[in-house]
Amino acid sequence: MSKFVDRVTIDAVAGNGGHGCSSVHREKFRPLGGPDGGNGGSGGDVILVVDPQVHTLLDFHFRPHAKAGNGKPGEGGNRSGANGESLVLKVPDGTVVLDTDGNLLADLVGEGTEFIASRGGRGGLGNAALASKARKAPGFALLGEPGEERQLVLELKSVADVGLVGFPSAGKSSLVSVLSAAKPKIADYPFTTLAPNLGVVTAGESTYTIADVPGLIPGASQGRGLGLDFLRHLERCAVLAHVVDCATLEPGRDPLSDIDALEAELAAYQPVLAEDQSLGDLATRPRIVILNKVDIPEADELADLVESDIAERGWPVFRVSAVAHKGLAELKFGLAKLVEEYRREHEKPVARRAVIRPKAVDKAEFTVVDDPEIDGGFIVRGERPERWIRQTQFDNDEAVGYLADRLNRLGVEDALVKRGARAGAAVTIAGVTFDWEPSVPMSEDVPLTGRGTDIRLERNERIGAAERKAARKLRRQRDDEAQESQEALGWTEDADAAERSDGEAH
């Protein structure tokens, strides 16, 4: 038996970008033919796409981890690496994408609607793309960026034209089974239906979908009886149909009290999404009332008593019996009329186009703030500086020098000077902390040395924090050894003073 799943949490991991290649063209009689390292390929994306053939999130329940392909590294001969293969995940129409904090990321309505759940990392540039007038043969390449990792919550809201609401055991599943080809579970105990059942109904030339929502009880809008999970599937229904059990034997229940109780819950329920593709609050939707089980004489008499009171509210009333197949044709065409009126007033949702929002030209590229954990330290935040850190090979001095040039051109050094940074201050970017050296000359003003080296780093005569700590430790060890030598020879400060006094007396 298939299982209906309407809420899952998935881990979407995009592919990593491939590393750039550092290569020099070589051939006979031409040992240094210039850089020819290719770029790395970009990592694949994780994409959610609405597919009308998918009706549940069951696949994600059993396979919650989604990983796209990684980009291939670049190669010599200006050969770029292949891009990673994107992973396309098919989701039902009406899927809502949320982050772990409950913030809306996407509302996927309409066939073909796409949402990029995680973006793949960019491929690193090869040394051929990094060549410039000042650095004609770079001895390094840029690393590929890691792919984006996100934990997302997928929530399904059934997209149906008609939603059946009512108390448990009101006969909603039985109606769906006789109005359509759907075969929901039917039993003589409450809460038989634990998940919505969708069916397709044909009335003349009209075709519409009907949803059997699990039974509601007073307090459902506050979550009682899993009411919030059930009410979520009504938010996109164009018409709400009250299914009333006219043959109930429970004390204190009658058709009018059942309708009033459910109307109170519908009015109290507030959709989680303010931008939902629905018709507004549930209390404002078109209504009909279905008086069910009228094949029982007592139920038929009760329907006679309450039908006029319900009609005074302006709602169409239908008297049916799912068991005896009574009044079903009138119900089918009555629902079809309401659905057709809705379709004339509202256009069918289509796949949403991607919206490109250019970045503001005056937006700050980075910010510099004080480091709360390191006295006198600073933290640089910004998309470009953090990306450059992830792309840098820190075991290559030339790559580190290239990073310093990029940060200097961006204005990071000037911003640190304005913040009062001093030489040797700890500066952290994207989790990497280094000692800041002010007024580092640009590469155009410095003669370049061998590939993979940078003379500016070699000429740095300032002792780093680690070296200073090691020097202090060595001095303490030497002092301790000298003190132990003096004590072994019996040489003390008092003996030294007495010897000096004897020398002065003579």
UniProtKB/TrEMBL annotation:
Sequence ranges assigned to domain OCT in this UniProt record: 358-438
CDD domains (alphabetical): Obg
Compartment list: Cytoplasm
Group of enzyme by EC: hydrolase
Region annotation (Disordered) ranges: 16-40, 64-85, 468-506
Location, primary (coarse class): cytoplasm
One Pfam family cited in the UniProt record for this chain: GTP1_OBG
The entry's keywords: Cytoplasm, GTP-binding, Hydrolase, Magnesium, Metal-binding, Nucleotide-binding
Coiled coil regions in record: none
Residues binding GTP: 166-173, 191-195, 212-215, 292-295, 321-323
Enzyme Commission code: 3.6.5.-
Ligand binding (Mg(2+)): S173, T193
Residue ranges of domain Obg in the record: 2-159
Domain OBG-type G: 160-340
Alphabetical GO biological process terms: ribosome biogenesis
Database matches in Gene3D superfamilies: GTP-binding protein OBG, C-terminal domain, GTP1/OBG domain, P-loop containing nucleotide triphosphate hydrolases
Cofactor dependence: Mg(2+)
HAMAP family: GTPase_Obg
Quaternary state and interactors: Monomer.
Name of the featured protein: GTPase Obg
Gene source species: Gordonia iterans
Gene that specifies this protein: obgE
